[in-house]
Design a protein that fits this description.
alpha/beta; 11 helices; binds (4S)-2,6-dioxohexahydropyrimidine-4-carboxylic acid; eight-stranded parallel sheet; 33% helix; TIM Barrel; three-stranded antiparallel sheet; binds zinc ion
């Protein structure tokens, strides 16, 4: 019987939403993860420390009664964000990081940043106080091909910012290209990258070959196979500045299965099982813990989790629900297109 015991994982990039979806999805993350960086792209967005406090309360209320899951709150950076408010939230321990969405890049990003100069005073303050910045790394220039938007963002935004504020701790969120991997590797100790579960498993064919499959559509969009392989290498090599951010991003099925579907993959229920499969395929099960449980805390300067969880390989494939129910609508769970044999033992010790 094959088992693997690792320190309890954290999710360094998670969308929990609010209202009925929050209630439906939060228990899945809380079942496996101890902490998660909570994305602030609600409508309206979580901009101020007071917004984060209210959202945190909603999340805690949606958790199972015995859960000790810890939401790590982020603030949505707008051109009107106040450095003092952000600093106060960080110093109080209420807020862990700030999220920068280029305006128009993705779901609910309209209030994001159009001109980076407008937020430089906030970024300078964050560099001073050591507060991490999570960046959605895609340009929104309509002239740039959607498959190139990450690479162009690195060139136009990330590299200049990296040079201008070397002390700023930057997380390049959901890296999807070899360009992103190369950037993080070359950028030194104040830069890290998160990688999603699904970008380790699918390439762009999953979305487009043989029919349009909207449940594989997310942003940044999955790229060609060479990029997926570069991500797998970065994640499974045990490199210290890459770690898991699932980017589990639920949308109800009617908003995915329509003429202009939303971006987002809901993978919270089967993420750890899928990752064990990927790391085993790569002969790297001994490095899964670094990716899920050690590298993230190290970059965020937080302690690693005390408890451990055990992953178990089952001879028979494990049943994972293909859909969950949220307030009368369904949400489709990520289908990795391979049978899932790993399960997560609860009762971490
Ligand atoms: O696919 C995505 N979904 N990418 C994002 O950046 C946002 C997310 C969402 O909120 O749905
Ligand atoms: Zn996201």
């Amino acid at each position: 019987m094959k088992t693997l015991t690792i320190r309890q994982p954290d999710d360094w990039h998670l969308h929990l939403r609010d209202a009925a979806i929050l209630k439906a999805v939060a228990p899945f993350s809380a079942a496996h993860f101890k902490r998660a960086i909570i994305m602030p792209n609600l409508v309206p967005p979580v901009v101020t420390a007071a917004d984060a406090m209210a959202y945190r309360e909603q999340i805690v209320a949606a958790l199972p009664p015995d859960s000790d899951f810890q939401p790590l709150m982020t603030l949505y950076l707008t051109e009107g964000s106040r450095a003092d408010d952000i600093e106060a939230g960080f110093r109080d321990g209420l807020v862990t990081a700030v999220k920068l969405y280029p305006a128009g890049a993705t779901t609910n990003s309209q209030s994001g940043v159009r001109n980076i100069e407008a937020v430089m005073p906030v970024l300078e303050r964050m560099a001073e106080i050591g507060m991490p910045l999570c960046m959605h790394g895609e340009v929104t220039d309509p002239a740039i091909d959607i498959f190139d938007r990450e690479a162009v963002f690195i060139e136009r935004v990330l590299q200049p910012l990296r040079r201008r504020l070397p002390e700023l701790r930057i997380v390049m969120e959901h890296v999807t290209t070899k360009d992103g991997v190369d950037f993080v590797q070359a950028a030194g100790e104040n830069t890290a990258g998160t990688i999603t579960t699904h970008h380790l498993i699918i390439n762009r064919n999953a979305i487009l070959a043989g029919g349009i499959r909207p449940h594989y559509y997310c942003l940044p969009v999955a790229k060609r196979e060479t990029h997926r392989l570069a991500l797998r290498k970065a994640a499974t090599a045990g490199e210290g500045r890459f770690f898991l951010g699932t980017d589990s991003a639920p949308h109800v099925d009617p908003l995915k299965e329509c003429a202009c579907g939303c971006a987002g993959v809901f993978n919270a229920p089967n993420t750890l099982a899928c990752l064990a499969h990927v790391f085993e395929e790569e002969g790297a099960l001994d490095r899964l813990e670094a990716f899920t449980s050690l590298n993230g805390p190290s970059f965020y300067k937080l302690p690693v989790n005390e408890r451990h969880v055990t992953l178990r390989w089952n001879d028979e494939p494990v049943e994972v629900p293909s859909k969950i129910n949220a307030g009368g609508e369904t949400i489709t769970v990520f289908d990795p297109m391979f049978p899932i044999h790993w399960s997560v033992e609860s009762g971490a010790s």
